[in-house]
Queue: 3 jobs
Job 1
Amino acid sequence: MDTALDCMPCFMKMAVREARLACPDDIVLQQDIVVEWGKTLAKLDLNDPPPAIARHLAELIRIKTGCGDLYRDDKDEANRCVAALMPGLEARIAQERANDDGDALALALEFAIIGNYIDRGVELEFDLEEEISNVARTISPEVLNSLKGDIFSGAKVLILGDNTGEIVLDKLLVKEFKRMGCDVTFAVRSYPVINDATMEDAVTVGMTRLCRVVESGVDTPGTILERCTPEFLKIMEQADVILSKGLGNFEALDGRWPGIYCAFKVKCKRIAEKTGLDLGTSVFYKTKVDETDDRDGGVPDASSD
């Protein structure tokens, strides 16, 4: 997915917010960062997806301030807050599993998608606990049935993680896939960017004790294929099922890698228009290669450097 003009105000707001986080007491440096970002943004290729653009802002702030993990405190707090909710959620999943007409995987997926609200790259008001308390079955039953049809005992399931806090809810999904006999791998970013989960977060929330966790190699808030390591691309190629969490991963992979299940919240006007859904709606979607993309939806060769 390319970067639209509607993305420009969001990128400028992000620059202001992150400049203030990186150097809260230096207004001159804040202004310098925002002005420099405006110049940089004007030179970038808008055919690239938004996550590919966003990494340039993170790099600029690191160069200007030396601050490499702007949201560390925020990330830790999100993980702690969501972890406190887990006993109740696990009980609800267990009850769902015990019901004759229950669907524990669907409920775990609904919870995990609600977690995608925890995104510091957008400005969207939400009440996480209220959303969880009033969870509704909103995801596409057709896509859910497709997912179930692709799952079998021993299936290699790769989950592309997204944000902190959200990663805690993703553990519910991992547990359901494992109960179905799947071999689960969870992927995190290799470098801090916005509030995306890294290996440090996976260790902190206990994901590494639950399943195999790998780094994708990317320094972007989305799985930009050209920035993945060859080793990670091989893991993607060998997966029987890929479940992509979050809007950034959807933006990076839609039209590039067919058959990926994308689970995320609609969090901006552009995605609302693309999906035909309202802001705040849960999305469960299976990707197709965009035949009109002049880059032909090509997937990088995993054997290349």
Job 2
Amino acid sequence: MMLEFTKMHGLGNDFIVLNGFEEDPGVDYSALARRLCDRHFGVGGDGILVVLPAAAPADIRMRIINADGSEAQMCGNGIRCFAKYVYEQRLIAAERFVVETLAGPIIPELTVSDGRVTSVRVNMGKPGLLRSQLPMNGPEGRVIGEVLAAGGAEYRITSVRMGVPHTVILVPDIGAIDPARLGPAIERHPVFLEGTNVNWVEVHNEREISVRTWERGAGSTLACGTGSCAAAVATALNRKTGRKVVVHLAAGDLLIEWESDDTVYMTGPAETVFQGRWSGTIA
């Protein structure tokens, strides 16, 4: 099978973008993601993004397949890469448009210079704050500073749904965290009915935080857009920050704004790394 692809990243969270308008509609994207995302025998990536036609009122559709073949409802770094790709490939002419995702309609707004997208501000919607929205076992209500026992340790967690479920743990030193060691036991804890992404957050002051993430279906990643949004909401809920913060990640920063109407906005970059052609078999 022959595939044209574009390799992109959002602050190091990297994706293989495929134009589904031009590919076989019967392709097994789950198997393809496992093959392409392998960093030794494939292209390498945290997941694949598939560009597809959408039903009105959306303008275009995004599918997100994680490296393990599971499908994600939403991806913050992925949506910025997706928005840059569809604009620069002239699949979309507008600088503000609606993307159909499994998490609902998402609206990116592009900053463009000389025909190139330099940054993307995304309306990420309103966070899900109730246990049933995560979804998570237990009595209905918000999960703020709740004790969770996992992997032989206890953590105080705050859980937020930003398209996908996220669990936030405040720590004094982000550099001491090993997501690959700590993440799996929390991700798969039976209290989380769909599993959870895990974010460790160090609060520097009321306007700045640092985040490290273990992503459900992808593992330890350099950045997570939905996780950064969840972290900003969680630190505000715990009265550690205001509702507008700069999130420091391994490869750069995101601006997260939780507005008074509860809508969360994320602003950050997306980069094209290279374009290529892959010829191989999925099996």
Job 3
Amino acid sequence: MKSRTIWWTVGTTGLISTLVFAGGFGYAVKDVLFPSAVQNPIVTAPQETAAPSGSIETKEKVQLVTLGDSLTAGTGDGTGKGYVGRFREKLQTQLNKPVYVLNNLAIPGATTTALLKEWDQKKTTDALKEADLILLTIGGNDIFQGGTGIFDNATQEFNPDAAAERVEPALANLKKILADIHQANPDATVMYIGLYHPFLDLDEKKAGSLIVQKYNDAAFALTNQYPNMIFVPTYDLFERNLNKYLFTDHFHPNQDGYERIAERMAQILK
């Protein structure tokens, strides 16, 4: 009796194991031949990232508002385009949609202090509220002041001390400017164009380069505080080709210099 029970138990267990194996094998074959839509919980297929609500990619047209100093005004470019006109053309081709300059509020000779006073005028904030993309150049006149006070009267060598003293006040104002722009339009993309050293060829020790780099590093940190702000470096564009890309006033870019800046800006948004 015990022997019969043992053999019955062994046979039943073997049958169950066979059925489980067959079922498992069939399920495995089903997964290979007819894979389900369920994703591996650890390794998932890459998902497309939706563009931010304020992204220029989502717009049917892009409206530019530009402000700042003479670089945004295009001083030194005989064609009148400056970096703004050249960038607008490149961006329009790149996005394959209309790009308009809604307002150019640049003032030649403007400093950060002068630009802050512009917020007293309602037209500035109203224009910024309508912008999809805001372009800004400011700070160069604060630090270099067209060469005033930064050349030794006797030797005409570059004297970095005067320029160095102007960095912190300019950065304090830039911080306020960026905060004001963000408050006026937190959804717009803002591109701040960094500084280059216009007197590099007159600065044998390159002391001014360190000053410009200090300013640019701090400006990058300020723009990096806002998700829609972009710092556009320009120092490297002029470092090896200063005389090639500067206008005859030895301060502003010429049309080739503006072309390089516009190329850099378009490349960043590509």
